[in-house]
Amino acid sequence: TAVLGDNPRLLYAILLQRYLFRGFRDFKLKLSGDLRRDRSKLGRLRRKGHAVRVRVDANNLWDSPGPCIDHVRALDFRFFGIEEPLAAHDLVGFAEDRFAEIERDG
Prior knowledge:
By secondary structure, the protein is of the alpha/beta class. It contains 4 helices and 4 strands; from the N terminus they run E-H-E-H-E-H-E-H. The protein has helices at 9-21, 35-47, 65-74, 91-105; strands at residues 2-4, 26-30, 53-57, 81-83. Strands 1-2-3-4 form a 4-stranded parallel beta sheet, with helices on one face. Helix 3 (65-74) packs parallel to helix 4 (91-105). The chain is elongated, with a radius of gyration of 14 Å. The model has no long low-confidence stretch (mean pLDDT 83).
C-alpha cells in the first residue's frame, strides 16, 4: 500500500507519480478535513486514469458522525475503507457511520 500524507501539492504530486511508476494501485490517503484540499488530492488520483483502490485515514478528525458522513459523501469517491474517522471507542458513532454507508449503497 502506498501512503499519501497530507503533503503540500507539489510533494503529493511527486509521491503519487513515483508510486504509480512503481506499479502501486492500492493507496492510503490521509485526509486533512478541508473538503477542497481532500477533493484536490482525490482528483489527482482520478486523473491518472489508473484503476486504484483507495482507503482514507482520517486520524480522528471528527468528534461526531454527522460532519464525518457529510465530508466523506461530499468527496464522491468509492473508498475501500475509512480508518479512524471518529474518536477511539466511539462505538455508537462508528455504527452511525456504517449505517449511513449502507443506506448510500442501497
